[in-house]
Amino acid sequence: MQIGIPAETVVGEHRVAATPETVKKLISAGHSVIIERGAGVKAAYIDSAYEQVGAKITDDAYTGSQMILKVRAPKGEEIQKLPANATVVAMFDPYRNTELDHFAAQNVSAFALELLPRTLSRAQNMDVLSSQANLSGYKAVLLAAAEYQRMFPMLMTAAGTVKPARVVIMGVGVAGLQAIATAKRLGAVVEATDLRPTAKDQVESLGGKWLDVPMSEEEQQKAADAAKNGYGWMPGEQYIKDQAIIVDKAVSNADIVITTALLPGRDAPRLIRTETVAKMKPGSVILDMAVETGGNVEGSQCGETVVTENGVKILGIPNIPSTLSTEASALYARNVLNFVETLFDSEKNFAINPEEEIQKALLVTHGGQVLLKRG
Hints:
Layout: E1 2-5, H1 20-28, E2 32-36, H2 47-52, E3 56-58, E4 67-72, H3 77-81, E5 87-91, H4 100-105, E6 109-112, H5 128-147, E7 155-157, E8 160-162, E9 166-170, H6 174-185, E10 189-193, H7 199-205, E11 209-210, H8 217-229, H9 237-252, E12 256-259, H10 274-277, E13 285-288, E14 305-307, E15 313-315, H11 325-340, H12 357-362, E16 363-366, E17 369-370
Parallel strand pairs: 1-2, 1-4, 2-3, 4-5, 5-6, 9-10, 9-12, 10-11, 12-13, 13-15
Antiparallel strand pairs: 6-16, 7-8, 14-15, 16-17
Helix pairs in contact: 1-11, 5-6, 5-11
InterPro entries: Ala_DH/PNT_CS2, AlaDH/PNT_CS1, AlaDH/PNT_N, AlaDH/PNT_NAD(H)-bd, NAD(P)-bd_dom_sf
Protein name: NAD(P) transhydrogenase subunit alpha part 1
Function: The transhydrogenation between NADH and NADP is coupled to respiration and ATP hydrolysis and functions as a proton pump across the membrane.
């Protein structure tokens, strides 16, 4: 099978869907791989590195390719380049993607990697959300630290003592846990909160302080059910009020705040209001990791740094994994390779099975139809 790796066209997207490491494995499995010229350059994977493992460099990775691997799904004119009956493996942002009908019209089988069932242990090595979130949590702290005008660790000098930075992490998923670990390594005092009470042990194991919000029995059950599928849940009115009080106090006293809360298929939940930001100290920094899907922070703007009247910086940095494009591409490409291998049977024949558990979850267009149920 010919597998094509086009260059990414989204502004600011520096990742690539295959690296020389994964291309070598694809070729060893009997496939031919063509790489669009310069596709990996922004991630430090130069054309000659792909050629050395047997790939062909071309100006058009779509022509003749039965399978296309991308980071961001093809858009607009790219979709028209897809051969009929081709297979595309990428991140589709499926619940917001308005072009799925076009893929169906091209009779394309489209696999949206974000839809991977996170509760399946055998699917963990394909989980692009987790691999990229891990990097995001790490880099988010560094980006915030670069904007912060003071130091993170406590420092005792002849000129006086420097107090450690107080960091609040909101959302303790993969990104949040990595952010806690990174902030602690830099010497900060870290507090964290999450809708899942089970996250408390994880926070404390990393040296963070858990911000506890009282829960009713019903809410505890909802949280437990949500924990089983690896995502958040929608809390009740009383919980939201109680959480707002605790968050307001913690954020008001914080030097750095990192928000990581995302809900699949929905706008990001609003965690920090303008009135809370107004209580923060001048020079404090908030980084809103959910800014691309509406933002956790009132007033955050995608791609911009907003400075409030009281001197607080709100960083709306999109696509943080792309700022670590070399490592992000390496991890993403391995996730993709692991998934692609499931599309071939024991005889190495290509065989899409819409009833197979993982494929069924990821397949958003197939056989000329849009399969995604938007709820």
